[in-house]
Here is the input.
Amino acid sequence: QVQLVESGGGLVQTGGSLRLTCAASGRTFSSYFVGWFRQAPGKEREFVAAIRWSGDSTLYADSVKGRFTISRDNAKNTVYLQMNSLKPEDTAVYYCAVDADRSYLRPRARESEYDYWGQGTQVTVSS
Here is the structure.
């Protein structure tokens, strides 16, 4: 069992930055893929970024590539999402999630492939 808690959300102006943190409990957190997803009002939840357990493989949605960076510190059981050059369309509730299937070598982007989810943190980008 893995429990996830997101933090770091808030209100920021267009062009600003935020760093989201996903703190996990569970001894095997360092063995899993971790992803970030987001859900805007009236829209379905969508993939943002993911990282392999070792930190050496990442995957990004096209909409955030070059602006967002995912990283992890396994010693702290933490994954980060650094968000730069924020746009109003980045406004959403952001969730971190764990994909516990190690039969894959690369991070995955489908919501159904993730097993554990946090409660989310709100990010609002004003224009």
